[in-house]
Specification:
The complex is a heterodimer. By secondary structure, chain A is mainly alpha-helical. Chain A has one domain. Chain A is about 70% helix and about 0% strand. Chain A has helices at about 1-15, 20-45, 55-65, 80-85, 90-95, 100-130, 150-170, 175, 180-195, 210-215, 220-230, 235-265. In chain A, α1 packs across α6 and α7 packs antiparallel against α11. Chain B has helices at about 20-30, 65-70, 90-95, 115-125, 130-145, 160-170, 190-205, 215-225, 240-245, 255-270; strands spanning about 5-15, 35-45, 50-55, 80-85, 100-105, 175-180, 210-215, 225-230, 235-240. In chain B, about 40% of the residues are buried. Classes of the chains: A mainly alpha, B alpha/beta.
Amino acid sequence: MRPYIKFLKTRFQSLLQYRAAAWAGIVCQFFWGIIMIMALEAFYRSSDRTAPMELSRAVGYIWLGQAFLGMLPWNIDRDMDRMVRDGSLCYELLKPLDLHFYWFLRAFSWRFSTMILRVIPQLIFAALILPMLGLGEWALILPKNPLVYPLWVVSVFLALLLSSTITTAANITLIWSVSGSGTSQLLGSFVTLFSGMVVPLPFFPDRWQAFLTFQPFHGLCDGPNRIFTGDIPLSRVPGEWGLQVFWILFFFLLGRILTAAGQKHLAVQGG
Amino acid sequence: MSGIEVRNLVKTYRIAEREKGLSGSVKGLFKRHIREIRALDGISFSIGRGELVGYIGPNGAGKSTTVKVLSGILVPDGGRCTVNGRIPWESRKEHVARIGTVFGQKSQLWWDLPVEESFDLLKEIYRLSDKQYKETLGELTELFELKELYPVPVRQMSLGQRMRCDMAAALIHSPDTVFLDEPTIGLDAVAKLTLRELISRINREKGVTVILTTHDMDDVEALCRRVMLIGHGRILRDGTVEDLRRAYKDGSEVELEEVVRRLYREEALR
């Protein structure tokens, strides 16, 4: 494991320098969150049907979504894309490492570092600063039951692993497609829609709900967010973890199969 | 078996072609013309342990393809090859742990980090002990004059400095065989001389087998006793630099560059 741990550390060091990008992202997400909440509030006021979720929970859902946005597997690693295009991918193949696991760690460190740079200021803003500004109704309400926190953290960690396995599998498609923009766009639209980033999943029609719960992207954002806000009761948390673990294994295996196939296919072009 | 043995190596690339213009692009959506290019068309040679061999030929001749097959990145379509008894593509992980590779146009160093970090990571990747690592890095640091470069992020280095670091990175695990693919490309005259000196010392002092591909005939004359000229996927000439000169005999003293050019044109006409 030594090489892999050291790789993870080195990659964090390299990624954590994108601080300016993180701050820009945070500011953008504050505004985006507020706009979404204003839209949601209008929708609650104008409708006389009972919403599938209390407003305060929906608000919390949106803030958590914004805070963990950096973790979603919505695109392909730009470094990988560049390596395939300029051929430095051959240096990856020249390392005595398990390629798939190595690439999985590459994805994991990327998702983790983008997330961790944003998440703390975002949560502080949503949970503490907004009430101080007199915007308590728009704030993220912290759970009263202390048990929620550890259970939620586990589910966030699983979401991170799930995101990394999806990212790895998507990155590997570069071997066939050379340019990652197609896969990125396809993946981006599926992930943002089905993880609940556009509209919280409970707001979709009732007959979709079974499908929405069992599809892989639920465990990225919808699941953990609703555990935090209390929309998913604690008794159902182990089931949620189970779903996440199932999809993590699914995409991990898919990635391994793709890597094995890709290595055979791979022809690094060059003069 | 010691050294490098290559027998009848064949590698074909498939290239999708399409006609020019919009209509060509549209047609290309339905029907693609696949053209096959023989990058290696039955190559054979053997290189003894500790040799330093120049591998020359024009762009597209098959140099890099050979290097990629030998280093285990590419699987050939036919033929056999062993590097110190290992079949590169069959035991990739074991093989790449024993070779070093430098591609002159690419870098394996971490762009944003001090170069020392890249070395530290390689130590772990090749599972070197602290003692081994200290020893080899100490040697390389002295040889390549790296001390003052340690804290410098790679993106702030000159090409010559980066190349020295990339060379050191390829040697850190004391490989038995080293592939250098155009290592002097883009370097200024002084940096080239330094690099040549380093290549020659590694070969002499450490007994490392070196295959050097280059377009720079001065590299070849300065470094290699033996040269292989490749063209159209075949080995056209294999011998000493003097042999190569003698092969083109019109009595006059011509530059090696010119000799190679004429030889190449002759072979192409054949």
